[in-house]
User: Fold these one by one.
Assistant:
Number 1:
Amino acid sequence: MYFTILVILHIVGAIMGIGPSFALGVLGPMAGKADDATKLTLMRAMTAIDSRLVTPVALVTQPVTGVLLIAIVLYAIIIYMSYIVSRPRVRRMISLLEAGDGHGEEFTRLEATSKMLGPIFGLLTTAIVILMIWKPGSGCGVQIC
């Protein structure tokens, strides 16, 4: 019974927390093509999705309910890239937009990095989802085991 509850919490956590991170891959390119005011709004929305949904689930629910060893490594890479690499850049981009400097060299450089990281996050997250469903080496196959 305990295991079943953990699996259910893990799946619900993945849907509620990790699922919305895929929206960032849509909102980011939209922000890249928008005027400064819209870009600022979209970037604030992306930050809200990250801090209110993705972060609580990524740091609490998912580790507590268990993942595969390979998925843990990929997960650690995502966490590092998100909090050490991406998050400070996005916050700086928001600050530049708020200051009216959404077209300067610094903003353009930060935006290029964000465009590169978005697909990487998507691929790593997809790999984790595939590993969680496939469960290689478990002998269980595609099922709750």
Note: The chain has a mean pLDDT of 81.
Number 2:
Amino acid sequence: MDSADTATGPAKGANFNIIFYDRMLQQDSAGASMGPPYRFVVFSSVMKPKDASAAASVVSRIYASDPKRVPGPYKNSLLSVIDRQSVIESASNETGKVDEIWNVQATDHGISLRVKYEKSAPGRQKSEGRVYSSVDTTFYRVYRWDLLAEVVKSSSAGVDRVRDYKLNLSVPDYANLFRSAELVAIISQPMYVRNVWLP
């Protein structure tokens, strides 16, 4: 696979993503629960598979709070303690303000995020894409999602509703990458529904 950038949208130009998930419900094809809620954090890169016409996501690391999700389908999940605190302040018809705090602790390293921002009206997105594993690049799953996306920051669109932001990462394997990284976008997804298929 060859490295690529996000071609369009508020994250245009980005080639690496850190995604913080708080999964409320997971169901199988019959609608039965697949376990209790859990949190996870994903590292993914934008890559272009050989002989493919479009770029795809490649998952290189997942921090999961549920031991049943380790090593996971992508074979690169680490069991971690993941705490989240989210506060929304709003009055009358104002969209409000958000204060998000995440703390991730793996065996020998951790991640912390705090972001405060002014809310805005989200947009609805429906799409489909392939997500590959960095461990076995022949393995992928097909995701079809329906979500609400709220653009908090976008360099390409000139949007910046951030009032405070701090990301600390002590991840040795990614030290060089984070040392020179530039923040391109922050996107909040208050609603995210995803269907997953194997090829």
Note: The first helix runs from residue 175 to 179.
Number 3:
Amino acid sequence: MKDKLLNRNGIRLAQAATGISPADFPLGSLESRAAARAIVEHSERSKPRMSQYDQDALEIVRGIGLFLCDLELESVSREVRATAIYKRGTQLELEASDSSEPTQWDGDGTERLAEILQSGLQRSGVDVEFRPKEVKWHKPLVWLLVQRALLNDFEEAWKRRLPEMPFPVRVESDYGTYTYRLYYRQLSGQWKEKTESYMILEPARELKELLEAP
């Protein structure tokens, strides 16, 4: 009981120090969608305005690369790759890579991502500030929020363009303890838990370990 109390206190201190917590951005919430839009708006700011269809096509291609790249999910991703929306997204990716210069960020991009998220959220009316960057849990927190926003955007694009196919990713979370569980839908319709993934699970575990450390 005492250890659990200390953990909860550590989480509250983390939230006070950073000014933000993953609980502020549950998947599907307005705040989560605002974070996703902030990333997309920044990445597309210097490009010609895309139609909603083309934006969705890119989100589906990128989402599959991020969340459905496991060999166990090859049958699911293969089904999606045969669709017109995926082929359009692939075409747009190739055009973008041929015509654009690579983005230069300092380090691993954590601070730039934090700036993009903060700016986009504040424009959307969410008063939030990532501070200070020196705290040990700053990096996994930023990456967790970014990945959750990307997953949310992927899901929304999927449901608009592939409504006949159930979205194959599900996240369960306990915001009080920063515990996340990731599930993938098999072709059989059954859900299978994935216990190792650099998306969602890795930054969530790193964040949890840092918060629970003495």
Note: Residues 138-161 form the longest helix (24 residues).
